[in-house]
UniProtKB/TrEMBL annotation:
Membrane topology classification: Single-pass type II membrane protein
Protein name according to UniProt: Fucosyltransferase
Pathway: Protein modification; protein glycosylation
Entry similarity comment: Belongs to the glycosyltransferase 10 family.
Example GO molecular function: fucosyltransferase activity
Domain spans labelled Fucosyltransferase N-terminal: 29-143
The species this protein was found in: Gongylonema pulchrum
Amino acid sequence: MLLYAPFLRGNPFETRSRGARSLRFREGQKLMIMWTTFFKQHPRNRMHLLDECPDLIDKCYLTDDRQLADSADAIVFHYMDHDFLLDDLPKVRHPSQRYVFLTVEAPPSYRILQSRRNLRTPANFFNWTMTYRYDSDVPWIYGGYWVSPERSKELGFTPENLPFDEQTILENKTGAIFWLVYIMIDKYGACAENPYKRDACARSAECEKDLGSMNFFYIAIENTVCKNYITEKYFERYHLPSVPIVMRRKTYEKFVTNLPSLFWILPN
């Protein structure tokens, strides 16, 4: 965790004591502001997700209203977005506030972004990290958090029924492997030579279910090898009736048991 104290020395922004809180949220709630968009999506479009967690609603108030920045307990910045700009940062900062560095990408990706945009934040600007890494101050784990069926019932979650009948799964298989990115197997996506396959199935589209039903395996390999980094290609398709091909066993064994029967793992 980066400490706030060094930032107070020689920083380009004004700091002052926190003023009176706005009446737009209840006393005792923690106010969190999303300063940027998240992959060009406004946070207000996802506020409904808090409805599924009534305990959080009582404890937290999440908004993208910058006018409340003076009262915020934490301000979150998505580092990879186009609207994270050095000339558009808060002009006033309180010593008790926490500035949160948010990214779900591996370091090579945002280093490329830094180079392209000449993006350099002030030294010790961020207090906390919110990333896919388990040692982040606020872990945002790819694929979310999984609970056992028993615990799921206790929490009142609605189960998702996935195909499990072997005969039903196998009878539709016509191909060996498909990959939606870049490989000469059964290839779909931007790099497919066949114009039809290039546009036939957009990423995360419903047609991926058909591809998963037709193939025994799909390739879910990370575009970079970093600590705790697991591609979303696995989590977005865990429900498909095909076996994911992944790499680096030590990355997956932290959160998945019974690895040999669930995965085809490339050598470390």
